[in-house]
Each structure stands twice: as structure tokens, then as C-alpha cells.
């Protein structure tokens, strides 16, 4: 076993996802404690362009599995490719973003390697020997500290919980890796991929989220949030109640049964802040609540609040921010 | 066609979480339920049987004696049979250990489709079901909002970041359910009574012929979410309050 630490570098729409830069930063802390290098794993098909991007995000070496059978993501082929590349490169702890893909293949890879996994990590408590990681449980109402018992393990980290690694001054060495993949043996076929919210900031990776609840009063209330989101470069979120009332598509739902987000700034407009909603956003760095009810629970976890009707406050805030950010 | 659903008992999502004297999660007085995502899986399995696509639904739980309530709830929803594997000998917060135990149990059972919730609302780890699929060599379709069972295959829509993927897997396979796939039924009183006569087997690790797995990770501490001071409230007309807020976000919180 090497002392090296591995990072799954996730790309979407031909670009490295922001969470990958953060994962490299986490891997760097662990690699320093182990006295090893950070090795990026890039998986896919036709990766010439992405390889040069990935070689510059702060890894010491980049292992690339470029294979026609990896053109479309599937858990089956990606698991085999990641495990193959990891083993050929000497093995070691493996870090993912806690994304759809990280959740899909992280546990599968961990078990194939006979390893433990810590999911959705938000802090490193101890980097050397037996590393300890903090992760939310009960959807963020509490945290537990998990100690890994063996030298090799898998970790997925929550987006926006760690700073991005510093970009490299010069690109890392790129090592092509051959992995044997035979599509004839695959048990899963991808029939169709339907793009949603193309070109929009992914909610789980957004720096700023403007979120609406029953207090925005309808689909037109969400139209009102859009200019505010635009000024801030924010993604739009929603409470479960707003989704159930068909104000907006379920993919925007934040909370215990929706997405878990951790942006720098979360602006809750007309959201009362039920525990289930808090569960999905309470680790946001700065929370703003705009609500007519001064006793709404959202004010208990907010940093700043305005007691008032979102329909009046949101346009006013949009104007102020336009001036300030102009 | 035979279906198996993996079910975990969790605390209700309304629960206020507190720590007990030994630093663990205090669960004594909190209502325990079937993990809501697993409930979607049970409902889906029961509907498939009601449509005549499947013949038999077995729910399998790893948990303490109190988890029998979760098994009974699933039987009252319409599952045919329940198995509870006692977790007293294993490190139940280690997904590796739980998966190894389930893997051993399922190796001795016949099934075409394995169902589970995509995440448990207590540990939020999303690991056990996928690990079980790996142990048994099953293909997987995770976080699914629609399932169609065909001849020797299952087609399901998976919700991924920014896209929906429609995948077909050869049976036997694992499918994990997301919210929105169905509305789980409330068990009726007659069905609760009927459930009491359905087979409910309790198994120990020695029944499965395995020793307790060595845990790969250990939970060493719990902490609660730090309480906030309460919000700084800006008063005045909407324009005045908004101006103060914008100023604070810029110069105090420095987030814009």
C-alpha cells in the first residue's frame, strides 16, 4: 500500500464540478498527514480536454481511464474503472463528493475493496493514524464523529463544506490507465438521459440559495424570487409545502425529504422553517429569514431577519442588492 | 416473482434530537417508525403484488427487539412475511457490518427484485443496500421515482443531479426508492389484525452461520447542532429593512 490519497474527479457537462476542487483540498490534508501524494482519478470517454483541466486543480498526479464504454455514466462500469485505476496506482484512501454519483458508487467500491466508508463528511477532526470525520445525522439535527479503523477507506464529502484546493502552478503528470471493460457483460443498460435545469446552478453546489415557501403564495411568487436569485447568482430552492402545492418542481425541494444544501448564504422567503426544512439547510453559513410571522421557527436559526411580506420585501431587497453589487 | 424489501426502524422525522448521559442519541421517549424511504419500497412491492406482477413480498430488518414493530407495520401494509435479524452482536452504526449480515441472510433466500429506501433518515448514509447489492453481485438502480417490472428485467427512472436517467437492469437487481414514487398506505385495523398471523422469523448470527463482522468504522462521539443566538431583525419599511440587510450581508457577514 502506498501513502497516497485518491480523489474521484467528477465532471458534468464537460466541466469539472466545483465539489471536486473541494475534495482535492480535503485529500491534501489527509495526504500531508500520511506523507503521500494526492492522485486524481478521471473516468470517462474522450477526456483529452478534461484531462488538462483536471491536471491543474491541485493534484500531484492524474490517472485517467478513457474508454468508449464509459461515455455514459453507469454504476457498474464506473465502479470497475475506479477500482481498477485505484489498484493499479497503488491503493489508498479514496475521496468523493457526496453527489448522486458519489452516493451511487462510493459504497459499492468500498465493499468491493472490503473497506469502511464515511458518507457526507463536513469536517476533519483528526487527519493522522486513525482519521476522524464529522458528519451530520438526523438530517443535520446532530453530528457524529466517525473513526476509521483501517488504513484504507472511502469518504464522501458534502459540497461547500470545505474550501477548494489551490490550483496548481503547473499541471500534474497525466498517467493513462487501462481497465478491462466489456459492455457485453454489463447488467444495466442506460435507456435515456433527460436533462433537467440545464445550465442552472446545481442546488447542492450553489454558493447562494434563494428559497420560497407557502408565504410566496403561488407559482408567481417564485417568479418574483428569480430576479433576486439572478442578482446574487443564486439557485432557487423551495420548502416541501411549496412543492406539494405545485408552486415549483420537486427537484427544488430543500429539507429532510429533499436536497441537503450548505451554501454561504441561504435566503428563506415565506418559509416558516419546520424541523424537516431546517434539516436540509441548517449547515448554511449565513441564513436570512423573511416572514410575516415573527414567531416562525426559521428566525431561531437565522442570522438576519425581516418580519414582513415576502411580496414586498423581496423586490425591495432585489433593488438594494442591484445598487450594492452594480 | 418474489420480492425482498430491506427495512430499517428509525426515529420519526418530527423528533427533537437530544443526547443521553452516555453521549448517545436519546431515543427512549421518541416514536419509532419504518424509515419513510423504506416505506416507499414496501408500498411499491405490495402494489406490484396486488397488480399480479409479483407473488410474494418478504421484508427483512436488522435491528433490536423493538424493531419488531417495524416488521409488523410492513406486514400490516401487505407484506407476506417478515424476518428480523437481531443486531445485538454487531456494530449497528457500521454499514459494512450490517450489509455483511444482510448479505449472508439473503444468500439463503430466493428473490428476483430487492427493494430498499434510498437513504435512512437517521444515519443518512445511503450505504447498506448498495453494499448488499455488491455482496450478491446484483446490478443497482438507485434513487428511483418509477419502476416497471418486465420479463427478466426491471426498468426504473433514477433522479440524479440535474438529470433523470432511465435504466434497465437484468434481474435479480436492487432498486432503491425515492420520495414521490407512491403514497404509502396507512394500515387498516383489519389488516393490522391479519398481520399478527403472518410469519415473522427472528434470526441470530449463528442461525445465519456467521460471526460478527469486524467493524470498519466506529462512531466515537455525538454532538448537537450548536444553538444560534436568534436572528438580528431589521425593522422599518421594506426598503429600509432591505437596505440594512444588504449592508449587513456585505460588510458584516461578508457573504456577498
Task: Report the span from N to C terminus of chain A.
Answer: 54 Å
Name the largest protein-protein interface in this structure: A-B, 97 and 81 residues
**Average residue-wise pLDDT of chain A:** 94
Shape of chain A: globular
CA distance, first residue to last residue of chain B: 56 Å
Strand residue content of chain B:
25-35%
CATH architectural category of the largest domain in chain B = 3-Layer(aba) Sandwich
Overall shape of chain B: it is globular
- Name of the CATH homologous superfamily of the largest domain in chain B: HUPs
The CATH superfamily label of the largest domain in chain A reads HUPs
What is the tally of beta strands of chain A? 18
Secondary-structure-derived class of chain A? alpha/beta
CATH level 1 class label of the largest domain in chain A:
Alpha Beta
Largest sheet of chain A: 7 strands, parallel
- One letter per element, helices H and strands E, the order of chain B comes to EEEHEHEHEHEEEEHEHEEH
Walk me through the structure.
- By secondary structure, chain A is of the alpha/beta class.
- Chain A contains 9 helices and 18 strands.
- Chain A folds into 2 domains: 5-185, 3-Layer(aba) Sandwich (Rossmann fold); 203-325, TPP-binding domain (Rossmann fold), CATH 3.40.50.
- Chain A has a 7-stranded parallel β-sheet with strand order 7-11-6-1-4-5-12, with helices on both faces.
- Chain A is globular, with a radius of gyration of 21 Å.
- The termini of chain A are far apart.
- Chain B has 256 residues and is an alpha/beta fold.
- Chain B folds into 2 domains: 2-208, 3-Layer(aba) Sandwich (Rossmann fold); 227-256, no CATH class.
- Chain B contains 7 helices and 13 strands.
- At the A-B interface, α4, β7, β9, β10 and β13 of A face α3, α4, β7, β8 and β9 of B.
Give structural attributes.
heterodimer, A: alpha/beta, Rossmann fold, seven-stranded parallel beta sheet, 18 strands, B: 256 residues, alpha/beta, 2 domains, nine-stranded mixed beta sheet, 7 helices
Amino acid at each position: 500500500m502506498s501513502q497516497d490519497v485518491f480523489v474521484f474527479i467528477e465532471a458534468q457537462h464537460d466541466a469539472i464540478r466545483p465539489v471536486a476542487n473541494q475534495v482535492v483540498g480535503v485529500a491534501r490534508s489527509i495526504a500531508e498527514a500520511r506523507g503521500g501524494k494526492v492522485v486524481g482519478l478521471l473516468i470517462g470517454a474522450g477526456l483529452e480536454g478534461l484531462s488538462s483541466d483536471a491536471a491543474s486543480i491541485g493534484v500531484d498526479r492524474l490517472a485517467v481511464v478513457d474508454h468508449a464504454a464509459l461515455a455514459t455514466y453507469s454504476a457498474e462500469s464506473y465502479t470497475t474503472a475506479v477500482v481498477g485505476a485505484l489498484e493499479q496506482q497503488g491503493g489508498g484512501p479514496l475521496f468523493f463528493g457526496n453527489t448522486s454519483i458519489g452516493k451511487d458508487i462510493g459504497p459499492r467500491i468500498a465493499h468491493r475493496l472490503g473497506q469502511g466508508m464515511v458518507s457526507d463528511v463536513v469536517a476533519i477532526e483528526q487527519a493522522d493514524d486513525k482519521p476522524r470525520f464529522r458528519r451530520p445525522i438526523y438530517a443535520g439535527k446532530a453530528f457524529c464523529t466517525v473513526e476509521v479503523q483501517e488504513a484504507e477507506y472511502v469518504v464522501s464529502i458534502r459540497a461547500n463544506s470545505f474550501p477548494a484546493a489551490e490550483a496548481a502552478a503547473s499541471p500534474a503528470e497525466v498517467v493513462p490507465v487501462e481497465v478491462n471493460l466489456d459492455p457485453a457483460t454489463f447488467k444495466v443498460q442506460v435507456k435515456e438521459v433527460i436533462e433537467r435545469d440545464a445550465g442552472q446552478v446545481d442546488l447542492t453546489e450553489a454558493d447562494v440559495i434563494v428559497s420560497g415557501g407557502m408565504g410566496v403564495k403561488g407559482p408567481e411568487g417564485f417568479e418574483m424570487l428569480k430576479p433576486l436569485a439572478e442578482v446574487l447568482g443564486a439557485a432557487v430552492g423551495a420548502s416541501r409545502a411549496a412543492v406539494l402545492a405545485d408552486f415549483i418542481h420537486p427537484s427544488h425541494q430543500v429539507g429532510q425529504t429533499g436536497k441537503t444544501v450548505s451554501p454561504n448564504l441561504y435566503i428563506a422567503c415565506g418559509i416558516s422553517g419546520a424541523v424537516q426544512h431546517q434539516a436540509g439547510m441548517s449547515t448554511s453559513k449565513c441564513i436570512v429569514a423573511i416572514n410575516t410571522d415573527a414567531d416562525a421557527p426559521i428566525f431561531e436559526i437565522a442570522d438576519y431577519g425581516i418580519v414582513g411580506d415576502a411580496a414586498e420585501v423581496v423586490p425591495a431587497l432585489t433593488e438594494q442588492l442591484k445598487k450594492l453589487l452594480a | 416473482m418474489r420480492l425482498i424489501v430491506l427495512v430499517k426502524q428509525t426515529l420519526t422525522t418530527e423528533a427533537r434530537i437530544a443526547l443521553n448521559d452516555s453521549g448517545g442519541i436519546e431515543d427512549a421517549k421518541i416514536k419509532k417508525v419504518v424509515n419513510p424511504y423504506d416505506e416507499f419500497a414496501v408500498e411499491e412491492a405490495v402494489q406490484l403484488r396486488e397488480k399480479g406482477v409479483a407473488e410474494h413480498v418478504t421484508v427483512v430488518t436488522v435491528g433490536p427487539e423493538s424493531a419488531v414493530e417495524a416488521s409488523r407495520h410492513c406486514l400490516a401494509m401487505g407484506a407476506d412475511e417478515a424476518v428480523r435479524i437481531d443486531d445485538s452482536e454487531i456494530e449497528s452504526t457500521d454499514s459494512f457490518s450490517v450489509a455483511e449480515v444482510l448479505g449472508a441472510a439473503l444468500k439463503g433466500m430466493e428473490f428476483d427484485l430487492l427493494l430498499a429506501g434510498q437513504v435512512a433518515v437517521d444515519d443518512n448514509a445511503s450505504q447498506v443496500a448498495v453494499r448488499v447489492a455488491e455482496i450478491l453481485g446484483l446490478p443497482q438502480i438507485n434513487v428511483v421515482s418509477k419502476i416497471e417490472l418486465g420479463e427478466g428485467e426491471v426498468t426504473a427512472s433514477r433522479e440524479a443531479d440535474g438529470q433523470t436517467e432511465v435504466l434497465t437492469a437484468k434481474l435479480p437487481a436492487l432498486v432503491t426508492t425515492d420520495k414521490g414514487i407512491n403514497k404509502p398506505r396507512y394500515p387498516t385495523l383489519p389488516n393490522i389484525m391479519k398481520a399478527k398471523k403472518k410469519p415473522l422469523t427472528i434470526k441470530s448470527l449463528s442461525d445465519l452461520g456467521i460471526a460478527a463482522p469486524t467493524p470498519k468504522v466506529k462512531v466515537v462521539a455525538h454532538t448537537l447542532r450548536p444553538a444560534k443566538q436568534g436572528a438580528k431583525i431589521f425593522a422599518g419599511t421594506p426598503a429600509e429593512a432591505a437596505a440594512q440587510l444588504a449592508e449587513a450581508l456585505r460588510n458584516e457577514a461578508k457573504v456577498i
